[in-house]
Write a structure and sequence with these properties.
CATH topology: Alpha-Beta Plaits
Structural class: alpha+beta
Number of helices: 3
CATH class: Alpha Beta
Order of helices and strands: EHEEHHE
Helix content: 25-40%
Shape: globular
CATH architecture: 2-Layer Sandwich
Strand content: 25-35%
Length: about 110
């Protein structure tokens, strides 16, 4: 499968009260700034009905960089910030499976 690649994903879901959301955003920015292990892509979303519910998802193309990130002080600080600022609802590590190229035979 030319041009396809597995992606490693962290998906974190947390309740963060409105008055603590700036600190939460700062903790995310700090975690993502870890040299050599920053995610290749990331997104932060919040629920449109429950404005305290946030989802942070980050993707890596390299298992080594993801492991480095998980072991980093920045990721530990993010998890600690969530414990202080709100409530961790879920933390998922996943590996995506590449889609076959359009027009390829199975």
């Amino acid at each position: 499968m030319k041009g396809t690649q597995e992606v490693l994903i962290i998906r974190l879901l947390a309740h963060i009260p409105p008055e603590k959301q700036k600190e939460f955003a700062d903790a995310i920015a700090l975690a993502e700034s870890v040299a050599g292990s920053a995610p290749d892509a990331r997104i932060v979303m919040h629920d449109t009905e429950d404005h305290s519910l946030f989802c942070w998802q980050a993707d890596w193309a390299s298992r080594d960089r993801l492991v480095q990130f998980i072991r980093s002080d920045g990721f530990r600080a993010l998890r600690g910030a969530i414990q202080v600022l709100g409530t961790l609802k879920s933390l998922v590590l996943a590996e995506s499976q590449p889609f076959p190229e359009v027009g390829s035979e199975s």
